[in-house]
Amino acid sequence: MLVPFMSLQRCCQRSALLIAARRQWSSSSVSPPPLHTRLLLFLTQRFYDVEMLLSWGSQLRRRGIQKKNAYYGYTQKLYGSDIAAAYYILSLKGGFRYVGQSEWFRANQRGKFNWDFLKHKDTPLEEVNMSYTVINYTGLGNLEGQKALRTLSLRGCPEVDDWFLARLHIFQDSLEELDISHCPRITTAGLAALRNLKGLRRLDVSSLPGISSPGLVVILLEEMLPQCQINATGYDHSLRQERGERTEEHMEGQR
Amino acid sequence: MSTWRRLHVKVRTAHGLLTSRWETQQRTWQYGHLALCQNLSTGRPLRNDFFKDLEAQLAAMRKKASDALPGSSWSPLEITPNLPPERADIVIVGGGVMGWSIAYWLKQKERVRGGVKVVVVEKDPKYSQASTVLSAGGIRQQFSLPENIHLSLASADFMRNINEHLGVLNEDPIDLQFNQSGYLFLASEEVAHIMEENYSTQRYAGAKVSLLSPTQVKEKFPWINTDGVVLASYGLENEGWFDPWTLLNAFKRKAISMGVIQCSGEVTDFKYTTNVMSTADGDDVDLRRIRSVKVQMPNSLEYQPVECAIVVNAAGAFSAKLTAMLGIGLGPKDSIAGIPLPVEPRKRYVYVVHCPDGPGLDSPFLIDYSGVYFRREGLGGNYIVGRSPEEAEEPDTSNLEVDHQFFEDRVWPSLASRVPVFEKLKVKSAWAGFYDYNTLDQNGIIGMHPLINNMYFATGFSGHGLQHSPAVGRSVAELILDGNFKTLDLSGLGFRRILAKEPMLERNIV
Fold it and tell me: What family is this protein classified in (chain A) (predicted)?
């Protein structure tokens, strides 16, 4: 009984020695990890701080857009709703044309514009071009009083979404041309809201990335707005997907 | 324990191994050196294996020993995962969209991270019977009570900015699939004056609604048969339908990311203390305060009492069962304690029909004065149809089976007479869901019961719970954390009207 026990004891001692030896060996061979590993390690240790910073960043961006789209109530009180709408459009680097005039007012690349538009008091706007601006749902409130607006171009606006389209009913009696092409946030569910614009003559829905099955949607839109000429380019109507399925079937058949 | 036993077995095998080797060694001693060398060369890897094992076992042993020291969370008893914690500040009973919305707003309003410990208890983690996901998913502003209109407007505003509210860093943005289509209510001659009154209330509250004459309806929607219609009201903005499952999961994901604890289980009992107080008239009333909530784990006898300060009753159709556990409704008939929570489950059927010739992209959420409603579902010619049954013919609520005869007898004739293209249709599927039906006035109950000190109610919405959930969640969180309503005054939806038996009825045209 005693002999095996002693041998066990010896084994344990040796194993302890081995462990100790391995530890020494391992500690001596550790070199500092590469820089990117250390950076990632640092970031994971600071997870909540990084999260906070990122959320502050997105909050700031949102607040900036909100500020640009604020309600121009002060201008409206001083100069009337038409001037307020014009000022809002120009400060967002858009362009517009008054009713009965051929001259367009536009802001240049750096956001500078001609203040001559102040001379036309109480003249409503007829055409508005807000392409590639950050106009959003709240900003649309500045244009609410424009009962003579006939053309509105919103090409490539990143903040134009379905809710924005639903709010376009404020121009339901006057709007004839609408361009919402290249707006990334518009989906099929929002296009249904265009039913309120019964006076629409021309609609551009080209290259909307949020639309699934664009062919069907365009047909349904044409059905919904029978007097409207719908322009929808930039979609791939080919049957590539189906062909892909067919090749898969074919492959399965081969197997 | 098992690790110990394994270690023991190891040692015993080692013992056997060693003795045998010792014997062989002895024997080789006798037989000569050549054999000894052979023996050693085979023995060494074996021995190394053993040491490696022993090393691992010793490490495990050391870990266990350090775990067993006071201050560590280890206990010799086995612990079921997702058991609720023993203590929490606020327990929300009911993990539907309302419960999760309240949880989210509580976390949103807390001053410091982890300021309130919120637990959401849901008995049906798969949501197979939850009213949230079995609803038609519509939101409208065409109510007659200003409270309801404001709730809808606030909820629509929330859904418009849903990614700012419920977006989680590093996760996909939420796509609610909100279909921007207004509700179209049709009124007959008897109820047209109500519709006009409602319209002015709605406009006053800020909802964008328009009234249409039958000719205008015919012009806008040529597929509607306007016989018997005198007036129609049509929502221009902030109305439509969305995916309830997405909204529920968005609330849940955000709330969990903010530190809300979710657990599946059913609340089967409360532990409460009772204080006997006397009123000004000299009557004695029992004032109860909940101390802990007993959460029964699903499919087991195990339960966990959760000590808590506040309980939120968001159990929807089954919230009356919870209050009955606290003795509400069991008291003498003419006292406050004798009035039960007037919420009961009611079964409603929803049918999906296919009609290729049906109205297209511009079809609104149509509600006829007969009570039949329908809306478009997707783009493939599918529609969701339903109707609220009469009070006398309420179906049995013990299961969620669908009565297809109801469609044949009640829904289809009215639907086809209103929209003639629906004469040709095919029922593709159907389901049933529960309404948390407020039998008194079909409106939500928000607030506290006078006899229970620390239970807040958000129940009895009778079918508008989903669409009002974002705004109601905020109001309940305000009520709990700030002590009163801050953004929307919902004191009209409190318990006072129920105890006084003064119903706040929606002046509906249906």
Answer: Belongs to the ATP synthase subunit s family.
